[in-house]
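Re: the 224-residue chain
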Amino acid sequence: MTACLLALTLLQAAGTPVDEGVLVVRVDTLEVARESFRLNHGRLSRGEAGWTLATTIRYDRARPVVVLAPILEVNNDTMPATLQYDVADPRQPSRILGELGRGRFTVRLVARATERAREFPTGPRVVVLDDSVFAPYVFAAWRATSAPGALTAIFPRGLRREVLQIRDMGVAVTTLNRDPARLRHITLGADGQETVSLWLDDTGRLMKVEIPSRRLTAERVAGS
């Protein structure tokens, strides 16, 4: 994790955006969505230093069109600090707010006629993820080491928490936009559940997410 953070921080110091790009999401070979994201390093809304990831994914190949737009802040220890998440779904539009407290991450979901809140215990290794948004998986990947480890994942849209196993499998051969590529391979999953493969380049940028059980891939567009 340290090498990835150092590489990205040096990019920021050089005056270049930390990272931004577009992920094409496919099920089998059918494109179902595109996700645009931007990652910055600097001062967070609570005053501490950290990372801000703003991402928007649009599912518009079927009706109704659904747009998911979370803005996630994590501190320099990559602990989730705040979340503002707009869900543009005509069936049930909502806003989700999250904030880190002492030993807990509080999620509040506000919809048309309902409001729900839940507190999740954190521990030292926590990430905020979503089943249908893929750029935030980069923060999970930064936590991986060559030894298997446990990671607590909070899924705010579903108001649930899962303990996952994460491991850095080292550099491996894969494909990216149908071309051969050598990328760092991270596995993330739980016993009896789907395994997610995360692929990073040598500077810690997220290049691809694979969920084989869903036949789903999210690949970075070439040049982004």
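Residues 2-220 form one domain.
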